[in-house]
Design a protein that fits this description.
The protein is an alpha/beta fold. The chain is globular, with a radius of gyration of 22 Å. It starts with 32 loop residues before the first helix and ends with a helix. The protein is built from eleven helices and five strands.
C-alpha cells in the first residue's frame, strides 16, 4: 500500500492531535503574488508531464478531495492547479444535495461510482465527507436516508465515529488497490469569508455565486469547525492524508496545493512502459514495412 510522504507544514497529523483553532488561515510567510504564481506555474508544468506518465504507467489512480466552507476557493483552486492536465485523463465531480436514488444507497455509494480508473486523476469537489460535516451539523438530514434504528433524535457520538471508521476503511481499501489519495481542507477564516460574500454581492459578475442560504450556514460556523476537526482527526492517515491549507490568500493556497500534488506524484516512481526484446523486434518490423511503402 502506497503512503505518500509529503514534507508540508500543513499536513494534518495522524495521531488525532489536530486543533482547528490553531491551524493558520493566512500564509506562513509573505511571498507576494508574483512569486506564488511563478511557483504554481512550475508545478502545473511538472504535473502535466507526470500525468502523461501516470496514464501510460496504468498502475495507479489519483483521488484529490477538496472540502471547505463556502467561498474558500475550491472551484478556482481546482481550475488553477489542474489547468495543464489533459482533460482526457482527469475528471472533476461536484457533489450536491443527494438525489432520491442516492439516498436509497449507503452514503459511500454515489462517490464510489465515480472513482478514477488506473491512469486517471479524479477530483472530488466536496465528497462523501459531507456526511460527517453538513449532515453532522444538520442531523435532521438523516431522516431521508432511512437507516434502520437511526434518527436525529437518538444519535450518539458513536454514530459519527462509525461513519468515520467506514471512511477510513474505504480509503484504506482504495490505497491498497493503487489509489493515491490526497485531501485538502481549504481553511478560510470567518472574516475573509465575510469579505468574499460582500464582493459577491457588490460585483454583478459574481452575484450568481451568492446564496442567501450561505448566511444561514455562516451562523453555524462553530458547529462546522467542530465537525471539521473531528473529521480530519478521525481520517488523516498515512495512506490518505489531510492537508489544512491556509485559504485567505488564494495565490498562496493554490501554490501549496499544486506543490503537494506534484511531490506525491513524484513519489509514485512512475515510468513509461518498457517493451521486451520480442516487442521491440516487432516494432522494428513495423518500421520497415512503413519505410518500404510505395509513395
Amino acid at each position: 500500500m502506497h503512503s505518500p510522504k509529503i514534507d508540508s507544514p500543513f499536513l494534518v497529523p495522524f495521531d488525532g492531535d489536530f486543533c482547528i483553532a490553531d491551524a493558520p488561515s493566512s500564509p506562513l510567510e509573505d511571498m507576494g503574488r508574483k512569486k506564488c504564481e511563478k511557483r504554481l506555474e512550475a508545478s502545473v508544468k511538472a504535473m502535466r508531464d507526470l500525468q502523461r506518465i501516470l496514464y501510460a504507467h496504468d498502475h495507479h489512480s489519483v483521488l484529490l478531495v477538496f472540502q471547505a466552507m463556502d467561498a474558500a476557493g475550491k472551484d478556482s483552486t481546482i481550475r488553477s492547479v489542474m489547468t495543464g492536465v489533459n482533460p482526457a485523463g482527469c475528471r472533476v465531480v461536484s457533489f450536491k444535495k443527494p438525489s432520491a436514488n442516492e439516498l436509497d444507497q449507503d452514503f459511500l455509494w454515489r462517490s464510489a461510482r465515480v472513482l478514477p480508473q488506473r491512469g486517471q486523476i479524479g477530483i472530488f469537489n466536496r465528497s462523501y465527507y459531507e456526511e460527517v460535516l453538513v449532515v453532522r451539523v444538520h442531523p435532521d438530514y438523516l431522516g431521508g436516508q432511512n437507516i434502520p434504528g437511526v434518527s436525529s433524535s437518538n444519535l450518539s457520538e458513536g454514530f459519527w465515529e462509525e461513519r468515520l471508521e467506514s471512511i477510513r476503511d474505504h480509503e484504506k481499501h482504495l490505497a491498497r488497490n493503487g489509489t493515491l489519495i490526497l485531501k485538502f481542507f481549504l481553511n478560510v477564516s470567518r472574516d475573509e469569508q465575510k469579505n468574499r460574500f460582500l464582493r459577491r454581492i457588490d460585483r454583478p459578475d459574481k452575484n450568481w455565486k451568492f446564496n442567501a442560504g450561505d448566511l444561514v450556514e455562516r451562523k453555524l460556523w462553530p458547529a462546522y469547525m467542530d465537525a471539521y476537526e473531528a473529521a480530519l482527526n478521525g481520517t488523516s492517515r498515512p495512506w490518505a492524508p489531510w492537508f489544512a491549507i491556509p485559504a485567505d490568500e488564494k495565490p498562496y493556497m493554490r501554490m501549496q496545493v499544486a506543490e503537494i500534488v506534484v511531490e506525491a506524484l513524484e513519489g509514485l516512481d512512475l515510468k513509461y512502459p518498457k517493451l521486451d526484446k520480442a516487442e521491440r523486434a516487432r516494432l522494428a518490423d513495423m518500421r520497415k514495412l512503413l519505410e518500404d511503402e510505395e509513395e
